[in-house]
UniProtKB/TrEMBL annotation:
GO terms for molecular function: ATP binding. InterPro entries: DUF7125 (IPR055549), P-loop_NTPase (IPR027417). Keywords: ATP-binding, Nucleotide-binding. This is DNA repair protein RadA/Sms. Pfam families: DUF7125 (PF23442).
Length: 208
């Protein structure tokens, strides 16, 4: 099967070339992490529809413009901030182009709708992504009180990327775990990454 690149070469390698077309991916990360770097990198690969449910469109566009890896003309940013956020996002989903990328940043406001409404949204999202052979990235920020529908988000997703950061001495370590890959092979070990201006492999050795 042909794969769609993520824009992160090390991740593409462990995923046997990238993401299968039609995949819905959950990116889990702490609010204080560098997950925005991943999101911006995903934008740089192909035409992208970016739905922001928290930040303003101006803030998102400025962040994307600062990323050298992104052709800003290929990214369209949509706002979905109010009580109609899930309907606004669904409208973007319905117009998703073939082999494009959809980013929802972040998914929490949608998860806080009632369970049946959210289940229908996720089901329609998956159907459209499959039909368009596209990719959807749902940015799921961890908190002490995740929405009840977070379980459904992860259950329905084809892949889960779990970004974790920790301080060790004077360094900050970043590791990406792939605990779920429906129809694919899960990497045996976490990916140790360096998050600077881009996402690269951290080649430093672990010292116990």
């Amino acid at each position: 099967m042909d794969r769609l690149a993520t824009g992160i070469p090390v991740l593409d390698r462990v995923l046997d070339g990238g993401l299968p077309p039609g995949s819905v991916v959950v990116l889990k990360a702490d609010a204080a992490s560098q997950s925005e770097l991943f999101i911006n990198t995903f934008c740089g690969v192909r035409e992208t529809q970016y739905v922001t449910t928290v930040r303003s469109t101006t803030t998102v566009e400025r962040g994307i413009e600062r990323s050298d890896a992104v052709d800003t003309e290929s990214v369209t940013v949509h706002a979905a901030h109010d009580e109609e956020a899930i309907e606004r996002t669904a409208a973007v989903v319905s117009e998703l182009d073939t082999e494009s990328t959809l980013i929802v940043d972040s998914v929490e406001p949608l998860e806080r709708t009632d369970a049946e409404t959210y289940r229908r949204f996720i089901d329609d999202l998956m159907t459209r992504v499959i039909d368009a052979e596209a990719i959807a990235i749902l940015h799921a920020v961890r908190s002490e009180h995740d929405p009840e529908n977070r379980v459904l988000t992860e259950q329905m997703a084809d892949l889960v990327f779990d970004l974790r950061s920790r301080v060790t001495g004077t360094d900050v370590e970043h590791r990406l775990i792939v605990p779920k890959f429906r129809g694919g092979v899960i990497p045996e070990k976490p990916l140790k990454l360096k998050l600077g201006e881009s996402v690269t492999v951290d080649t430093s050795r672990d010292i116990a």
